[in-house]
């Protein structure tokens, strides 16, 4: 039993500890880090035929996992109009939820019973049941073995203070004995950096270094430990070395008195949006938060401000928010909303797609609307963009699994364009309720960012809105995802139909005002009208926003804008491949080398410098006049490469493995590099990035074509012809609309014509 106390501060960490208990960490207003305990037993639900669930309940008296049970009334299925009588089971231990779920399913031969709310982890279940969220301002009062919360915050707040958390960066150097580091190599040096304090541990035995690290972390007392590769390598390595040195029981970086770093979950490879990803298992700290910069998406996109915003808005613990996909974070909001609405969360998605004829599929399953771009360079063009079009349409039109083709409103006036499917008018779905919060907060942050004069605060608001943007970007795709609990394929198609209808209405209104559509894709339009004023564009946006109900924003007017052609078909434009200079001084690029993750730094720098040359042009005429100056940039980079002035690290190429190297039929560059690493004992997984240097790209002995970055040794020479080809190709890509090819760039750089065969031999 904990002594009675009252604490006011911010909720920092929550996790199940002992059976029937969770540990809660509060950062007090005075800076004190306070540890509290609370009794907690999770609830899960079982539905089925009444006589069968009663029979199931009769055997619960002997089940040691159950604390108590009773019958309750809930919406058992998302599409139900009335509550059903279900079993509410309170378990003794959060960690036994999956065990009990399997027991029930096996007892019913996986057919009789449906188990609900069983996918919630203990920390999330605790937060939901107490209406709490990470970093919430709370007042906590201890009452016997319980905590009583007074919430002094809201997930809807946008003016919440930025909590000054202590962040330590942990860095370990390994005394490498082979070509690659391994768990068998001893620790050379350990560094810990916090604010302006840096501590380096490089003396004594390895055992002493490990124990000194524990002491340093205890002294610095960070809230967040930031690592590079902490999940995949660093922490597993330190745990292994601590085990060898027989100090594993003393090696704890937790704030809590738990004696080890826990591995949560398992490493996995998964496929999403056409790409293969690898996700390492989480190395979990208790009372502190471990953030691995190599295993996080949101930190790369929006820094810590974005991470905190996701944790608060989605009610996701910080260590989970740092690693989870945006889809998982969005699911968390939906789960909370479902519990609030007394709707049970299904274990598996159970709503099938409605049957469609071939004609209905042809009409309905068409994606977004596109206007093919007019290839070439353009003047007098401005861009307008629908703000969060699909999320707004999902909220506006109440699109969710339980509302599309509902049983209660067959005569609803709210219907999909094209397919004419009806949407419920009697209740608002879980998906639009969840998205409404995100849409409204992001609009507020964007408004505040534009209004605020404080540069630092403007940056905070910008990072917060950027984090929420990713939820809105993925929510449409997630609606049709096969495992989304409240997803619906029919709703997914309906959003596209509403989007096409909205897009075409905006186009007609623009054309009525004399604008020509040069390009349009899903939710963005590039409009041309000679001598049009900014006021004309903003008036159009205001009219569209008012009449259609989806915000249309004026993104800016271009000094010039280039739409690039297809490499295979020079007369056909590529939908998302363009670059241009805005009147406000910004440059916008899409689909070219500087936007690709596999572009070496050398080529990136060259192409950016070329674009900056063109950015000084005020119109298409001046742009054309600057082509010789842009080619001079190519010539300068060529000379730097030939003179050996380009660091080898600026030539590194990064490629992602879409499958395990052994499953490739062709020995492409990334596979060769991966095989080199595997030969030296490294672990290589599908979804991981492989970095390498081209050393002899056309060598018949494929192993000599590239060298993995980790295996590059002094004296290794890059394949100059390969990198010159990449340089020329990047310049040709920018000028392809004007008839430039890689060969023509080569000729221009060298200042004289060469025979095509000679050029081809050099380039290829």
Describe this structure in words.
- The chain has 21 helices and 29 strands.
- With 764 residues, the protein is of the alpha+beta class.
- The protein has five domains: 6-39 and 131-151; 43-119, Alpha-Beta Plaits; 167-340, Nucleotidyltransferase, domain 5 (2-Layer Sandwich); 365-429 and 486-591, Palm domain of DNA polymerase (Alpha-Beta Complex); 629-763, Orthogonal Bundle (Topoisomerase I, Chain A, domain 4).
- Helices cover 36% and strands 23% of the residues.
Q: Which word captures the global form?
A: globular
Average predicted confidence as pLDDT: 89
CATH superfamily of the largest domain: Ribonuclease H-like superfamily/Ribonuclease H
Helix count, DSSP H or I runs of 4 or more residues: 21
CATH C-level label of the largest domain: Alpha Beta
How many strands in all? 29
Cα separation of the termini? 76 Å
**Would you give the CATH topology of the largest domain?**
Nucleotidyltransferase, domain 5
Please tell me the CATH architecture of the largest domain by its name: 2-Layer Sandwich
Relative strand content: 15-25%
Q: What is the C-alpha radius of gyration, as a whole number of Å?
A: 29 Å
Q: Low-confidence segments, ≥5 residues, pLDDT <50?
A: 753-764
Number of domains: 5
The description of the largest β-sheet is: 8 strands, antiparallel
Structural class: alpha+beta
Helix content: 25-40%
SSE order and pairing:
Layout: E1 6-16, E2 21-28, E3 33-39, E4 43-47, H1 50-58, E5 66-74, E6 84-91, H2 97-107, E7 114-116, H3 122-129, E8 137-143, E9 146-151, E10 167-174, E11 187-194, E12 197-201, H4 206-220, E13 224-227, H5 230-244, E14 262-264, E15 268-272, E16 275-279, E17 282-284, E18 289-292, H6 298-314, H7 318-321, H8 326-340, H9 358-364, E19 370-371, E20 376-378, E21 381-386, H10 389-396, H11 430-451, H12 455-479, H13 489-512, E22 516-521, E23 524-528, H14 534-548, E24 552-565, E25 573-582, E26 587-590, H15 601-615, H16 620-625, H17 627-642, E27 653-656, H18 669-679, E28 689-694, E29 706-708, H19 720-735, H20 742-750, H21 756-763
Parallel strand pairs: 10-13, 13-18
Antiparallel strand pairs: 1-2, 1-8, 2-3, 4-6, 4-7, 5-6, 8-9, 10-11, 11-12, 14-17, 15-16, 19-22, 20-24, 21-23, 21-24, 22-23, 24-25, 25-26, 27-28, 28-29
Helix pairs in contact: 6-8, 6-12, 8-11, 8-12, 10-11, 10-13, 11-12, 15-17, 15-19, 17-19, 17-20, 19-20, 20-21
């Amino acid at each position: 039993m904990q002594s009675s106390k009252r604490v006011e501060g911010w909720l920092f960490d929550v996790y199940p500890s002992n059976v029937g208990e969770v540990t809660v960490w509060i950062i007090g207003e005075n800076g004190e880090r306070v540890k509290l305990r609370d009794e907690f037993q999770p609830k899960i639900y079982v539905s089925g035929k009444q006589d069968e669930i009663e029979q199931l309940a009769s055997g619960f008296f002997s089940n040691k996992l159950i604390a108590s049970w009773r019958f309750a009334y809930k919406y058992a299925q998302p599409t139900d109009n009335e509550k059903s009588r279900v079993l509410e089971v309170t378990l003794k231990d959060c960690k036994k939820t999956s065990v009990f779920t399997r027991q029930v399913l096996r007892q019913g031969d996986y057919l009789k019973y449906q188990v609900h709310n069983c996918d919630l982890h203990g920390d999330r279940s605790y937060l939901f049941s107490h209406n709490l969220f990470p970093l919430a301002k709370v007042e906590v009062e201890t009452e016997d073995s319980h905590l009583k919360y007074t919430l002094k915050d809201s997930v809807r707040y946008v003016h919440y203070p930025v909590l000054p958390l202590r962040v330590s960066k942990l860095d370990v150097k390994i005394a490498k004995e082979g070509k690659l580091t391994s768990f068998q190599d001893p620790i050379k040096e350990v560094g810990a950096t916090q604010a302006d304090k840096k501590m380096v541990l490089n003396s004594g035995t390895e055992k002493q270094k490990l124990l000194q690290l524990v002491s340093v972390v205890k002294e610095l007392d960070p809230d967040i430990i930031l690592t590079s590769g902490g999940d995949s390598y660093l922490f597993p390595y330190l745990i292994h070395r601590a085990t060898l040195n027989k100090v594993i029981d003393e090696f704890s970086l937790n704030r809590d008195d738990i004696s080890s770093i826990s591995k949560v979950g398992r490493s996995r490879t998964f496929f999403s949006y056409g790409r293969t990803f690898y996700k390492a298992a989480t190395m979990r700290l208790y009372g502190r938060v471990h953030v691995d910069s190599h295993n996080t998406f949101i930190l790369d996109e929006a820094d810590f401000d974005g991470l905190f915003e996701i944790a608060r808005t989605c009610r996701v613990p910080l260590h989970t928010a740092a690693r989870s996909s945006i889809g998982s974070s969005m699911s968390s909001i939906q789960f909370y909303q479902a519990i609030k609405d007394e709707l049970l969360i299904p274990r598996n998605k159970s709503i099938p797609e409605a049957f469609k004829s071939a004609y209905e599929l042809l009409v309905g399953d068409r994606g977004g609307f596109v206007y093919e771009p007019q290839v070439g360079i353009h003047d007098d063009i401005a861009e307008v963009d629908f703000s969060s079009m699909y999320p707004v349409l999902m909220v506006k039109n109440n699109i969710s699994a339980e509302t599309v083709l509902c049983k209660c409103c067959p005569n609803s006036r709210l219907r999909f364009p094209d397919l004419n499917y009806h949407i419920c008018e009697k209740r608002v779905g879980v998906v639009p309720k969840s998205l409404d919060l995100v849409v409204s907060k992001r609009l507020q942050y964007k408004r505040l960012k534009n209004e605020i004069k404080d540069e630092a605060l403007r940056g905070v608001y910008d990072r917060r809105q950027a984090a929420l943007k990713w939820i809105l970007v993925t929510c449409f795709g997630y609606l049709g995802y096969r495992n989304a609990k409240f997803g619906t394929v029919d709703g997914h198609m309906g959003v596209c139909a509403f989007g096409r209808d909205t897009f075409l209405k905006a186009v007609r209104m623009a054309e009525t005002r004399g604008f020509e559509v040069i390009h349009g894709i899903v939710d963005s339009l590039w409009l041309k009208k000679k001598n049009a004023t900014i006021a004309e564009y903003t008036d159009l946006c205001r009219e569209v926003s008012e009449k259609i109900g989806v915000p249309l924003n004026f993104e800016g007017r271009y000094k010039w804008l280039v739409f690039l052609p297809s490499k295979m078909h020079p007369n056909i434009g590529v939908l998302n491949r363009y670059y241009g200079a805005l009147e406000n001084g910004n440059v916008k690029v899409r689909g070219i080398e500087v936007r690709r993750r596999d572009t070496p730094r050398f080529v990136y720098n060259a192409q950016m410098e070329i674009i900056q040359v063109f950015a000084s042009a005020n119109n298409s005429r001046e742009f054309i006049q600057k082509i010789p100056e842009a080619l001079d940039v190519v010539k300068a980079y060529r000379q730097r490469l030939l003179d050996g002035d380009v660091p080898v690290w600026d030539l590194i190429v990064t490629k992602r493995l879409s499958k395990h190297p052994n499953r490739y039929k062709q020995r492409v560059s990334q596979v060769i590099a991966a095989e080199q690493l595997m030969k030296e004992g490294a672990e290589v997984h599908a979804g991981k990035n492989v970095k390498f240097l081209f050393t002899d790209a056309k060598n018949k002995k494929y192993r000599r074509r590239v060298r993995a970055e980790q295996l590059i040794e002094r004296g290794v020479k890059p394949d100059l012809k390969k990198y010159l080809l990449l340089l020329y190709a990047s310049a040709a890509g920018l000028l392809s609309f004007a008839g430039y090819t890689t060969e023509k760039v080569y000729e221009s750089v060298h200042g004289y014509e060469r025979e095509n065969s000679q050029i081809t031999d050099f380039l290829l």
